[in-house]
Structure to design on (702 residues):
């Protein structure tokens, strides 16, 4: 296989086994996000228990959204074909080199969507190519555990969810039910509570807060009354969730209302992890066993002085001293590739 | 004027002044609700300070929704013409007898909608006929105060709002900003918290609650996981708010989670009234002055054993011993007619 990225220094495994010279083929990992789709091409390492770190990325391509509910079937399928073909061309491979494909998508509640996307991808490759479509939480977990499905992942971006696996492959989930059903630690939840605090202060039901001037300024509005029109003009979750930095700024400046909103969010996010860990028994019988907690999403990784991620970690470690919180070093598309590699390796062991 | 309802026993005012023998003309009161429009025709009583109780209803007609955002402009205008004309025919009057028309509509945040509907009604009548389009909270207040705009009204149905006027005509409002902005005492707010409690119990973040079996049974679902799909399949506020009776049933059966949701709702509704009363100084300087609080909507008037309306009244009276809670004896359309009468009477005094 011609490989323009090959520089003669192929990665070696720690235990001295020979690494993939790319002759074992490649894996495609895809992240089907809300606004774009990322596809990475990585070499296939047949020994599932050990991958080189960092994993070599042969190619990375980006296309538009591939969620058919957002952009329609034709556009979604076209984007998917385009991003896959671009990644293969960039890596110097073609479809015959592909061993497996894994796509992570949000919308775990619509299995029929996943099945349709899976059938599209199957149609693009020879029949022996393994195709996996997984929900984004599972791919996010894999991005922090080098593809191993063990431990818990906490995602807190626009929405939030905690998802986990024990060693036997049992799954559990908490939150991820959307804003109507109380995902209070999500970016949307934090922002909606901030907007509510502004309204309550304005109509005399709550204390004054710095959030009023900060949020009005950020949105270019002149009165809290205008927030009602602003909110319902386009109640998309992401648009409202984008106010989290304003809440953090106010909390850092000493605003008590903002501080309480963030403390409550940290409590709630930690509670979601706790629920998953306890249901799966990840902490062991004495509560001290070691397990990874992968932390993903803008709410957890914002790197501000008021650090929501750090506060959540603290709360998790108070309950479970063996919890190892991990911020993934690779993006979700790479997590998808690692996951595919682990699935293939397991299958090889069995056969 | 021919009046098929006249039976020779025309109402007399307490102070002996002559009542309207309908020769003074009629008033039309309209209630433009979410699903239907009601129009009542009542005799015009020129003395705005005193109306007979009960106010005689000459006719009552019902038509479809007249909210142009819901049904489109043509259908909205047609329904409006139809319900007005039917009420006039029923009452034995015609447009030449009409002195004033008042329509109560929800959607106080869209003044352009109100102006359009007002211009439609003006176009249906001679130019001397007074036409008023008011938000539904003001009409609801009038339905409890015989048309006088003084005191506070609390509406808690699908949504909730507190609205008030002092003797000088100053207005104040609290809540009414919709579910994203924290109307927690509304039917929607109560139901969303109940659904959240079911999800939290299911994924291990919260205590078990009777709400789980009760709500699943009411919705014909077999697992809390299915609630996510149910909620987002059609997130209309009214559909979710319709779960309030299930919450009340569980609270009456001793479910602590349900009881807490209702206690919080009662606290929040009372807080909205308190905010309005304090901003307008309705309770006087010593806090004991007498003023009406009109209570409207399915959440307040459900007549269950766990009586949310009674709990709200208790809390209001604890703060304001002079508050007189009133459940209106007449429907909103009659409130609209009383309001028109008061507006016309005030205008007569001035001229």
């Amino acid at each position: 296989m011609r490989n323009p990225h090959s520089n003669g220094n192929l990665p070696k495994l720690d235990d001295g086994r020979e690494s993939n010279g790319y002759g074992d083929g490649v894996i495609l990992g895809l992240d089907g996000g809300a606004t774009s789709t990322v596809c990475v091409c990585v070499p296939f390492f047949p020994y599932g228990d050990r991958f080189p770190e960092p994993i070599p990325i042969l190619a990375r391509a980006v296309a538009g959204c591939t969620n058919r509910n957002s952009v329609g079937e034709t556009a979604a399928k076209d984007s998917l074909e385009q991003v896959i073909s671009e990644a293969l061309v960039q890596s110097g491979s073609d479809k015959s080199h592909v061993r497996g494909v894994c796509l992570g998508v949000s919308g775990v509640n619509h299995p029929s969507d996943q099945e349709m996307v899976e059938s599209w991808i199957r149609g693009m490759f020879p029949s022996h190519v393994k195709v996996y479509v997984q929900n984004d939480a599972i791919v996010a977990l894999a991005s922090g555990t080098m593809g191993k499905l063990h431990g818990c992942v906490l995602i807190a971006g626009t929405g939030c969810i905690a998802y986990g696996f024990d060693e036997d492959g049992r799954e559990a989930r908490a939150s991820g039910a959307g804003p109507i059903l109380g995902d209070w630690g999500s970016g949307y939840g934090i922002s909606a509570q901030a907007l509510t605090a502004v309204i309550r202060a304005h109509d005399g039901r709550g204390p004054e807060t710095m959030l009023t001037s900060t949020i009005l300024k950020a949105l270019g509005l002149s009165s809290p009354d205008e927030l009602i029109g602003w909110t319902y003009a386009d109640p998309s979750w992401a648009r409202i969730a984008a106010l989290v930095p304003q809440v953090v700024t106010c909390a850092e400046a000493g605003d008590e209302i903002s501080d309480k909103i963030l403390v409550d969010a940290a409590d709630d996010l930690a509670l979601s992890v706790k629920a998953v860990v306890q249901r799966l028994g990840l902490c062991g019988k004495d509560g001290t066993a070691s397990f990874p907690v992968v932390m993903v999403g803008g709410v957890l990784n914002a790197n501000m002085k008021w650090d929501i991620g750090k506060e959540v970690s603290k709360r998790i470690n108070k309950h479970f001293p063996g919890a190892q919180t991990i911020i993934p070093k690779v993006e979700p598309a790479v997590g998808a590739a690692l996951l595919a590699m682990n699935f293939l390796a397991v299958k090889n062991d069995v056969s």
The first helix of chain A runs from residue 68 to 71.
